[in-house]
Amino acid sequence: MFLGVLMAMAVWKLAAPRRRQEIQRVIRWTNNLGLVIIDTIGLRLSFPILAVGLAVIAQDRGWGLFNIIEAPGWVAVLIAIVILDLVIYLQHVMFHAVPALWRLHRMHHADLEFDVTTGLRLHPVEILLSMGIKLAVVMALGPPAVAVLIFEVLLNATAMFNHSNVRLPMLVDRFLRLILVTPDMHRVHHSIKPEGS
């Protein structure tokens, strides 16, 4: 899914770019995708298990809220996705508001241009902190593993979409803004820096 969305956004950008880019793609993409490799290695070395795997273990051992209470599977999946999304949103707010966290997160905002790889450009320590937060939530909630998998796919896909340099028809953009962050909305967010940064 990750590679599929990355390629789809890259092709869409070639077919209908929103803005002209000045920096050669090969330079930016090498740097940004190199960070993805470093981040992935860091996660694998730092955590013996990631969020989906922990959800499977939690379910097997009866850990977390959804393994204690009775709830229909679809309700548990839906609530878990919403809670995970809310937690990651609050984490993002904190990375903008807390100066020490902003020093990590500004690597993402320091990209000189804005495209699909900007959504992947994250400081390795930020990735580790984010995974630690997700693991804590998974332990507390005990969500179905499929909910965590769906959340991870949606999180990555939307991050790549809303950072993409793609042109959307105005009517489509206006409709999409009702349910998710569009590339034009997110570009404005990237231009806003915390005070004292």
What does this structure look like?
The chain is mostly helical and 197 residues long. 69% of the residues lie in helices and 0% in strands. The chain is built from nine helices and no strands. It has helices at 2-15, 25-46, 51-61, 73-97, 99-109, 124-141, 145-162, 170-176, 183-191. α2 (25-46) crosses α6 and α4 packs antiparallel against α6.
What is the structure about, briefly put?
This protein is an all-alpha fold and 197 residues long.
Features:
197 residues, single chain, mainly alpha, 9 helices, 69% helix
The figure for the number of domains is 1
* Largest beta-sheet characterization: none
Strand-pairing-aware structural class:
mainly alpha
The portion of residues assigned to helices is 55-70%
* Rg of Cα set: 18 Å
Give the number of helices. Answer: 9
Q: How confident is the prediction overall: mean pLDDT?
A: 92
Sheet-strand content, in percent, reads under 5%
Number of strands: 0
- Form type: globular
- Uncertain regions: pLDDT < 50 for 5+ in a row? none
**Separation, N- and C-terminal Cα atoms:** 35 Å
Which series of helices and strands comes N to C?
Answer: HHHHHHHHH
Q: Secondary-structure blueprint of this entry?
A:
Blueprint: H1 2-15, H2 25-46, H3 51-61, H4 73-97, H5 99-109, H6 124-141, H7 145-162, H8 170-176, H9 183-191
